[in-house]
Design brief:
The protein is an alpha/beta fold. It has one domain: Rossmann fold (3-Layer(aba) Sandwich). Helix content is 39%, strand content 24%. It has five helices and six strands, in the order βαβααβαβαββ. Strands 2-1-3-4-5-6 form a six-stranded mixed sheet, sandwiched between helices. Helix 1 packs parallel to helix 5. It is globular, with a radius of gyration of 13 Å. The two termini are 22 Å apart.
Length: 118
């Protein structure tokens, strides 16, 4: 899966996801400090799903109606270690194939997913 990890995603979690076979672009390494609007635009241009801890991406997609066609995954875990984060996200990614075009929230015991606005 093609992912764009926002700069708040730990580098070792990015590496673990890469080790699991995902193509992950890391904003922390590529362009730290990039505003969320530009991160979202980059994800759309590169056909990558945004992986983040920041609810702002939901606001951008649903309230501001910015294009987010590739998809957004919001991780809502309380202070996960990088290893936990990578394990939980990798397990979630393996469990479904409908991530593109959706806004998903990964929580400790469930995943909520809904279509993004057209």
């Amino acid at each position: 899966m093609r992912l764009l990890a926002d700069e708040n995603v730990p580098g070792d979690a990015v590496e673990a996801l890469r080790g699991d076979g995902h193509d992950v672009l890391c904003m922390r390494a590529e362009a730290p400090g990039t505003p969320d609007r530009e991160v979202l635009a980059r994800a759309v241009a590169d056909a990558r799903i945004v992986l983040n801890f920041d609810k702002d991406f939901g606001d951008l997609a649903f309230r501001a109606r910015l294009p987010a066609s590739a998809g957004v995954i919001l991780v809502r875990l309380r202070e996960p270690t990088s290893a936990e984060l990578a394990r939980i996200v990798a397990t979630a990614l393996r469990g479904r194939s409908d991530w593109p075009g959706h806004f998903a929230v990964i929580q400790p015991r469930r995943i909520r997913i809904r279509p993004l606005p057209a």
